[in-house]
Every structure is written in structure tokens, then in C-alpha cells.
Amino acid sequence: MKQGPPLDTLTRHLADCPTVFLSEPRTSKGKGRVDVLAVVSDLMEGWGRPLQSNERKRLKLELRNRPRARMILLGSYLLSHPDLTSSARDQAAEWLSGFQELSALVQVENLVQEPDRREEFARLCLDALGLVPEGETQSQAADRLLTLSSVEREKLLEESRKAQAEARRIREELAKKKREQEAAPYWSRE
Amino acid sequence: MSFLSQLLEHEDAPSFNYSCGDHLASTDLAELHRYAAQLEVGRPRLNEVPPPWLEGLAASCGRRIPHYRRLGGYAGDFTGLPLLNRADLRAAPEDFIDPGLDRSRLMVYTTSGTTASELWVPADPLTAAKALPLLEHLLARFGVRFRRGPGQVFMASVGFQKETLTYATQAAYLRGSGFLKLNLDPADWPDPGSPRRYLSHFKPPVVNGDPLSLQKLELDYRPEALISTAMHLQEGLKSQLEAKFECPVIDLYSMTEARMLAVRSGAFWEPLAPDMYLELVDSTGTPVVPGERGELVVSSGRNPFQPLLRYRTGDYAVLEKDGTFSHFEGRSPVVFQDSEGGLINNIDVTRALRDLPLAQFSLHQNQDLSLTMTIWGQVDKEEVASRLERLFKETEFRVTVSGEVPPGKAIRYSRDL
User: Which of B23, B111, B132 minimises the CB distance to A190?
Assistant: First the structure.
């Protein structure tokens, strides 16, 4: 992975996000303010690397979902940072099309307002572009991203919920079995 | 008449309150024979370098058992593992079960130990039946082997309790040989002479029970061995039983959650089976060196439904150079005070009374330093009093001989201070 810009450059960029990038995306029925597909297209054309037809098709599918569309809009804004241009050209569309899990867990506003979520979003972006924040090793960057990751946290919570449910089930079984103990305990005083 | 019917319907038979079989599949029997062979391999020693099976157990627990997973898995430092408390098992026995194990044959044994709160010990029939090869492994030291085949009883387990399960069953592992679980409380029997006549009719060569129950035992034949367990066996009582029954009296250290840990040999205790790893550790969990006193902790995967890693027994002993232990004292040490402010260790009390045939006793020191002693057994109260006086000088005390059935494992020593 290559060295990218300092992390705080990107988190500051996010904190300074103009409200228009948090506006409602325009739907197929004409509601909403911003045409997100046009924003992405313009961004990429500006880099001299227009959206390819398969990328456009996939983005269109994603844009049908409102929270994802809002996250794609904010992602486009983050990618507009000049320090990212050269690395973003080929990976941008891919990253912008991959917000299924994150958009289900995190509100777009939080990616701008909360320091940890800003850092998470900036790190996710760098990771998708094959970059590590300036001054960090690859493993430091990976560790920090894992710590912050909302998706990972949700996975852990889900695992823990499943384990707790399993434990409850086993305890109920034990309580039932306790009432119906039947095999000879050759070594018991009870 | 089937052999089981003979056991159940004998004219002196007690009113059995339970009925059960051993629920073993043929694969279990094969496994039990394999297990019996494994017991013969090697002689375990306390505080030895953790054997490979133990490292394997710790690693597997770290991956699969919720409680150990939460501790962060196993990093390869066995003696660095935190000690496991009875409270952990009591609070969440389900956290010690690998969710991937087949639980269809699970049973739950319970033990109340020294407190009123119950501990659940989940186990499958195979684990329960491992008691048989283990007992044979123990008895082999004394030249005794269980008899096989129906028509005879291989062992009777006797209690003297207010309430307990009583049953007669046959062990598939011993090809149908019989097992009796009896309560010597007269209320269970048709006639006061019935226990003696019933046992003497079926002549189980091995009888096990706690010291008080063994003291109540009356037989018209000579058994091959008695096994005393569950409570401390005073040397005086051991000698008395050996003289009365003309057979060895084996003092076995066992707990429901970790069965058959060690056997007494003179002044020393030897770990019994190579599938239990015993350590003596200090209060920080660090293994002690020979000559030092520590708490016994046990590790074993014998029961796959409750694998134990460094489980605190609450019992204390001194490590010997040869990997045995001595000065074994159940429960945590209690220090008493005499009338002049001198400190008296509970071991001193045990030592002062050890040649007396006490079945069980408890000693409690009240806030005003006065002592209350309750004793069970046929013993001279004045003798007990004079020994206490020698130890505690002018301290006030009261000795009561109890005719009541003692409450399970009574805590032997306690104090209000």
C-alpha cells in the first residue's frame, strides 16, 4: 500500500463538508435536491476518467436506496479532496458502490459530525484506494480501522447476541435435564 | 427372578426411591475400556510441567468454550491462566459447554457443597460411568478388583443423610454386576437390623461412603475394602474402621465437579489419575515450590461438559518433593485466637483431635472469642474438651455431641472475627 495524505487533512475536509452534500438525493420521481449520479460523473470526468457503463449501472442500482445514495454523495465529496485524485481514479466507483452495510448502521450526518465516524469514513476511503495515512504502517492503519469499524462492531455484537441466545438455550436445557436426571451416577452423594 | 428384582425385593430391602440404568451405548463401553487402559499409563505428579494433553485442552477450551473464549483464548502460558472459581461454575454452567457438543444425553448432577447454593455439574452417561474404571484403578493399589457378571454386587455406596437418592442398578461395564446406593438412616428400612442383613446377604466387597456413614455401617462379612470420601477422615476413625472390618480403609479425595482427585498413602496424598492435572498454588495463582503450602487447583477435560482449567478446590496442602502433597486440609485455613491473644491454625486443631474417632465436627469461634464445637460420632466428649483446653487455654468453649444427621459437608472451621 502506498502512503496517502495525513489523516487529519481528510477528517478536516469532512468536518468542513458543505450542507449541499448532506442534502436529499434526487429520486427517479424527481423528488430531492441533488442528482448524485451527476455529481459522481462530473467528479470523475474532472479527473479525465469518465464512469464506465458497468460502473454507472451499478451506481444507479445503489442510488435507489436513499441512505446509500446519501453516503455516495458524501463519499464523492470526500474523494474531491485534491490529495486523493491520482489514487482515486480507478477505485472510486468501486468504493462508492460498496456502502450497503455501513449505510444500514450509520447516519450520514454522523460521518461528518462525530470525530470517530469521520475518522472511520476517511480511513475506509484510504483503505479502498490502497493508501495508508501518512506516518502510519500498514498494520497500524489496519488495526485502527478495525477498532473504529462500525461494521466490525456490529458483527461482534451480532456474534455476542447469538452466543448469548445459545447460552440461554443451553441453560434452559440444563434446567430441564436437572429435573429428569436418569443415568446411574456411580459416584454421587446426592 | 432377575437379579435386579432380587436386589429390589429382598425382605430387608430398603424403600428405594429411584430407578435408573447406566444408559451406555456399545461405543461408550469401548471408550470406557480405552479409558481404563489410559489410566495405567504414567503416575501424575503435582506441579509438574504441563503435559501435552493439558496444553491441547487449554487451546481447545480457548477456542470453543464461551467462558475461556471471553478470557481471550489460550496464549500458551498455562500457569498464567487465571484461577477458576466455584462461583464462575455456579453462576453460568452453560458458559462451560462447547455449543457444538451433542447434548442429547446430557444429565445434570448437583452438589450443594459447603453453602446452600447449588452447583450444577452437567455430564453425559460416559463421563458418569468413568467412575468405574477410576475406582478399579484406585482399588488395584490394594489388590482389589470389581467382580463382573450378574448375581453379585460389586459395590455399595452408603450415606447417612436425611434425604438422598437410593437405588439398585446393574453396570454394563461390569457385565451386569450390581450396584447399590443406600441410605443407612433407619427410616429407609423395614427394621433396624435390615441394613446389616441386606448388605450381608449381597456382600458387596467394596463399600464407600463418608466417614459418618461408614461409622454407622454394620456387616456380618469381611469386605475387601472401604472407601471413605466427601469429608476429612480422622486418623482415629480410620484405625477404628480398619480394626472393625479387617480391611483397608481408603481415604479418597473427591468432589462432584472434579471426581477422585487423590488418594491418601500414609502421611501423603497422591494424585490418582493422569487425566487430572493438580497444582498447589499461592494466592496469586503461582505454583508453590516443595515445602510450601498452597491451594489445590485442578485441570481436567474428563467431563467434556465442564472442562476445568485451574479450578480452585478451596482445599490446602503442602507440596512434597516427589509430586505428592501432605498436611491436607479441606477448606481454606482459619486462624483462631486463644485467650491470651495467641493464634491457632485450624491444622493445630485437626492435629490435636486426629486420633479420636470423630466422624465429623465443626468448630466456630464467636466474636467474644468463645468457641462452639459440635461433634458427630461415638466419642468421649470430655476427651475432646480437655484437648481443646490444652490448645486454647482459658478460652471459654462448649462442646455438643450431635445426634442429628449432619448437614452435608459441614464447614469444619469458621469464625465471626
Answer: B111
Terminal C-alpha separation, chain B: 61
Comparing CA positions, the residue from B310, B388, B376, B394 lying closest to residue B351 is B388
Residues 6+ positions from B166 with CB-CB distance below 8 Å: B14, B15, B16, B17, B18, B181, B182, B183, B188
Tell me if residue B205 falls in helix, strand or coil.
coil
CA–CA separation, A1 and A4 (whole Å): 9
Beta carbons of A177 and B107 less than 8 Å apart: yes
Q: Residue B261: its chain A contacts at CB < 8 A?
A: none
Average model confidence (pLDDT) across chain B: 90
Where are the alpha helices (H) located in B40-181, listed in sequence order?
A: 52-64, 66-70, 86-91, 125-129, 131-140
Residues 6+ apart with CB under 8 A from A74: A14, A17, A21, A22, A108, A111, A112, A121
Q: Which of B383, B390, B388 is nearest to B364 (CA)?
A: B388
Phi first, then psi: give them for residue A114, nearest 5 degrees. -95, 130
The interface pTM score, or ipTM, of the predicted complex is 0.73
Q: How far apart are CA B305 and CA B109, in angstroms?
A: 12
Q: In whole angstroms, what is the distance from residue A62 CA to residue A167 CA?
A: 38
Q: Do A178 and B120 touch (CB under 8 A)?
A: yes
Q: In sequence order, what are the beta bridge partners of B146?
A: none
Whether residue A187 and residue B260 make contact (CB cut-off 8 A), yes or no, is yes
Which residue matches cell numbers 466474636?
B367
Q: What is the pLDDT of residues B205-233, one digit of tens each?
A: 999 998 878 988 999 999 999 999 877 78
Verdict on whether the full-model pTM lies above 0.80: no
Q: Cα(B160)–Cα(B193) distance, rounded to whole angstroms?
A: 15
